[in-house]
Design goal:
single chain, alpha/beta, Rossmann fold, Alpha-Beta Plaits, 2 domains, six-stranded mixed beta sheet, four-stranded antiparallel beta sheet, 14 strands, 33% helix, elongated, disordered C terminus, binds adenosine-5'-triphosphate, AAA+_ATPase, P-loop_NTPase, ATP hydrolysis activity, ABC_transporter-like_ATP-bd
Length: 306
Amino acid sequence: MYSFCNISKHFKNEKVLKDISINMNEGEIYGFLGCNGAGKTTTMNILSGLASYDSGICLWNGRNIELERIPLEIPLGYMMEEPIFYNWMTGFENLSLYSSKPPEKNTILRLLDTVGMLKSCNKRVSSYSRGMKQRLGMACALVNNPDFLILDEPTSALDPEGRKDILNLVSDLRDRGKSIILSTHILNDAEAICDKVGIIRNGKTILEDSMENLLDNHLSQIYSIETDISIDENLLYSLIRKKVIKDFRNEGSVSSITLKGNKGINDVLSVLMDNGMRILEVKRIKQSLENIFIERTGDNDETSVA
Ligand SMILES: Nc1ncnc2c1ncn2[C@@H]1O[C@H](COP(=O)(O)OP(=O)(O)OP(=O)(O)O)[C@@H](O)[C@H]1O
């Protein structure tokens, strides 16, 4: 288990990280999510040794490591959202510079091929698009074969095909035992590949759980209920007033009911039956990470850590 706990940091008079905690298992992809300005890049800069911090603890396989020593003690690769290169040099030359050992030509070429940059690797970086620089940035993060990868929005500048390639690559890396923290605003991508998710808001971790638990337990559940006669809307409004349900949508004999939390469906069904309706079918609608994110980071959010 790798833990980074109680990370805090201020810029001038503003405390931008108040209490960030990340607990991840070896060999998993951890989705580090938050709105613009929540503190993701600042946290990633601290973990990769690029930024100072006020307080924080790192426990790495039972060892206590000072945060500023993480890059010295743990082989890590960091991909910044907008990687910086020597523009007058080629992609091949830039990547070779990142290698901590004397670079082997074939290894560098293979890596450039893996990130889809083989064809352009002898062109100067000044001619690269943002997406090409992002691909090269991914190669730089991987060039020293690190165990731990920190990827800050690795697909933000990529076209759909490029995004798919990089997500497949990240999944492969996890399957080869790498531990990966990844930030992204593309929540469908996070839902597709992350094993665990941490959501931060205003510099604090507000939710952390496995993807499976998140999708099952952390949201107002929605049920589709089919009845023999359509449900009287007044009855549903009375359930909203009694705080049994949060919302509903009626479409003939099928109603979509949003509960207040993840419990209470039996109460709803009892009320319907007590009012003379026959229940024909009850289906739970699968929720998405995007819905959880919006519900948890919205203005009315109760900011409690799970
Ligand atoms: N060098 C800096 N000086 C002062 N404030 C900064 C600096 N860098 C970041 N901040 C502030 O710290 C807060 C967190 O910024 P950060 O870039 O970490 O957020 P983020 O979650 O990565 O946002 P985004 O999703 O937009 O990339 C913001 O309020 C930002 O304005």
